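TL;DR need structure tokens for one chain.
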Amino acid sequence: MLVRLLYCSRAVDSSPEAVESILNQSRQHNPVSGITGILCYGGGVFLQALEGGRIPVSELFGTIQSDGRHKDVALLHYEEIFERRFGGWTMGQVNLDKTNHAVLLKYSERGELDPYSVSGKVSLALLEDLMANAAIGARA
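>> reply
TL;DR here they are.
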């Protein structure tokens, strides 16, 4: 049973080293659990999609909720899926500081990442748009 979980959180430490630490940890641990996904970061906010088996994804989300590097963790969307959309990445990365703000403006009131103020489906559409426009780095 494959599922997709989308959540957002705020970074406790927004330094590039702290964000890179989260990505490195994801890339090390997710393949073993069969989890793929994408992490979008901008303005101190994380938006992350996780895909994989129901239990591994649920366990990882529980770990993230208690991770001291995240605060204000919010579940945005959860669904059973037929196939992965982000299967090519152990944890793809989008740095919104290097992304065209028109893409963000397409999905929100202002050209900034604020998943707390839009629906989970809108946030998922944003991630799909970023993927379609090759804004995702760190493949594999």
